[in-house]
Specification:
11-stranded mixed sheet; alpha+beta; two-stranded antiparallel ribbon
Length: 245
């Protein structure tokens, strides 16, 4: 017989703080509440904040399904400065003057990055090569040839432009590197760019407005936490989430 589901088999919607890895968030929750099985559905880099879908207990069986969901973000890219990681955590590798640009100029370039595009994953990433994450090889000064990957950009919208900063919104398929997108847009503009800020606002059917800060969860008792967990049975009713119990 399969064991009964418990109130702790489900999902927590966490608003990840800046500076922590997604694994850090999982580790904090596991240690604080004494859970044996905890995972997350879609990595956020340390500079990023926002929605991190955390799965608990037997809901970890849904991890691959939930990770495959489309994502939405709002962020800021900074023109004129390129970094080795393609975000503000990296080392500056090039600086170029930002040309005079209008919102119309930006829109013309953004159009090229909507729809189906190919992305070469960055060296500083968790993708593995012969069992080792690329970022560990990058730290040793190594560069590995990476195959382009197909991703889809459903929406790429200009929100604000105060040179050298561009505020944007993007909705995309899983596996899209938003920092790579920013770097490539900067190259297309002729001045380079990097991702300065990023906030995930949506993951599949989950929305950031329903999330709580990590610190708020860590201030709860185990009994109080139950009210914030989306039960696994409710998750299984969501389209596309059928998985073995």
């Amino acid at each position: 017989m399969r064991p009964e589901l418990t109130p702790f088999d489900g999902v927590l919607l966490v608003d990840k703080p800046k500076g922590l890895t997604s694994h850090d968030v999982v580790d904090h929750i596991r240690r604080h509440f004494g859970f044996k099985k905890v995972g997350h559905c879609g990595t956020l880099d340390p500079i990023a904040t926002g929605l991190l879908v955390v799965v608990l207990g037997r809901a970890t069986k849904l991890q691959s399904h939930l990770t495959a969901d489309d994502k939405a973000y709002e962020g800021v890219m900074r023109l004129g400065v390129s970094t080795d990681s393609q975000d503000s955590d990296g080392k500056i590798i090039a600086e170029k003057p930002v040309p005079p640009l209008t919102p119309a100029d930006l829109e013309q370039v953004l159009t090229r990055f909507r729809g189906d595009i190919q992305q070469v994953p960055p060296m500083i990433s968790a993708i593995k090569y012969k069992g080792q994450p690329l970022y560990k090889l990058a730290r040793k000064g190594m560069t590995i040839e990476r195959e382009p990957r197909a991703v889809h950009i459903y929406e790429l919208r200009l929100l604000t432009f105060d040179s050298p900063n561009i505020g944007f919104r993007v909705q995309c398929t899983k596996g899209t590197y938003v920092r790579t997108l920013c770097s490539e847009i900067g190259d297309a503009l002729g001045c380079g760019a990097h991702l300065a800020e990023l906030r995930r606002t949506r993951s599949g059917q989950f929305d950031l407005k329903d999330a709580q800060p990590l610190e708020a969860f860590l201030n709860l008792s185990l009994e109080q936490l139950q009210a914030s967990i989306i039960p696994m049975l409710k998750l299984l009713r969501l389209p596309g989430n059928a998985a073995p119990m």
